[in-house]
C-alpha cells in the first residue's frame, strides 16, 4: 500500500537549469559531481567548491521553472492523502527559494545539510522516520540514477522521469514516466493493487 511519495527537486519538479559546464570551468577541473568532489578534497578546496556550487544553485533556484503538470500532480497527491516529501542534493537555501517562488509546500524536506547525500539510502531512512512510514510504503521519484539507486537501497519503489537525452541503463526503476503528470497513473496502479 502506498502511503507517501518522495520527490527529487532539480529535473523532477523543476526543469534542469544549472550550468554544470560553467561551474566546472570556474572550479578549474572536470570534477563530475561537485558534492562528491568536495567530499574528497582538502578542507580549503571543499569550502571553495561548495561556495561556487551554492552560487550557481542560488541563481538556478531564482530562475527555476516548474515542469509541466507539477502543480496538478501535487494537488492530486494531496487529494489522495498521501504524504509528500522532498529529497535533494541541493542546499536548504535553494530549496526554500524554489518552494517560495512557486508557492509549493512540503512538510518533509531533506537537503544536503541533513545527511549523507543520494545515492546513499540515508536520506530516505531519515524521511521514512520523519514521515512515520516504512520504506515499503514509499515511492521515490527522480530523474537520475542516483534517485533510483537511493530508493532501491532503502527499499522503496522507484520511478524514473526520463528525458529524451538521458536513458538510464545502470539501474532499473520500477516505473518509467515521460512526464511528471504520469505520477497520477502510477498512484492508480497502486490503488488497483497490481504487483510490481
Automatic annotation (TrEMBL):
Gene3D superfamilies: 1.10.260.80, HAD superfamily/HAD-like. It holds the Pfam family HAD_2. It comes from the Bacteria. InterPro entries: HAD-like_sf, HAD-SF_hydro_IA, HAD_2, HAD_sf. Transmembrane segments: none annotated. PANTHER family: HALOACID DEHALOGENASE-LIKE HYDROLASE, SUPERFAMILY HYDROLASE, PUTATIVE (AFU_ORTHOLOGUE AFUA_4G13290)-RELATED. This is HAD family hydrolase. It comes from Candidatus Brocadia sapporoensis. The lineage of its organism: Bacteria, Pseudomonadati, Planctomycetota, Candidatus Brocadiia, Candidatus Brocadiales.
Amino acid at each position: 500500500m502506498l502511503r507517501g511519495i518522495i520527490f527529487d527537486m532539480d529535473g523532477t519538479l523543476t526543469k534542469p537549469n544549472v550550468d554544470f559546464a560553467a561551474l566546472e570551468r570556474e572550479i578549474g577541473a572536470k570534477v563530475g559531481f561537485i558534492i562528491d568532489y568536495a567530499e574528497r578534497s582538502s578542507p580549503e578546496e571543499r569550502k571553495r567548491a561548495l561556495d561556487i556550487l551554492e552560487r550557481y544553485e542560488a541563481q538556478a533556484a531564482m530562475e527555476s521553472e516548474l515542469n509541466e503538470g507539477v502543480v496538478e500532480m501535487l494537488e492530486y497527491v494531496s487529494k489522495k492523502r498521501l504524504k509528500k516529501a522532498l529529497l535533494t542534493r541541493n542546499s536548504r537555501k535553494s530549496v526554500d527559494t524554489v518552494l517560495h517562488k512557486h508557492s509549493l509546500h512540503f512538510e518533509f524536506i531533506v537537503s544536503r545539510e541533513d545527511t549523507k547525500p543520494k545515492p546513499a539510502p540515508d536520506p530516505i531512512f531519515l524521511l521514512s522516520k520523519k514521515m512515520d512510514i516504512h520504506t515499503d510504503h514509499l515511492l521515490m521519484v527522480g530523474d537520475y540514477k542516483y534517485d533510483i539507486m537511493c530508493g532501491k537501497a532503502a527499499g522503496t519503489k522507484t520511478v524514473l522521469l526520463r528525458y529524451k537525452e538521458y536513458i538510464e541503463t545502470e539501474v532499473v526503476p520500477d516505473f518509467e514516466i515521460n512526464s511528471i503528470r504520469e505520477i497520477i497513473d502510477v498512484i492508480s496502479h497502486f490503488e488497483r493493487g497490481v504487483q510490481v
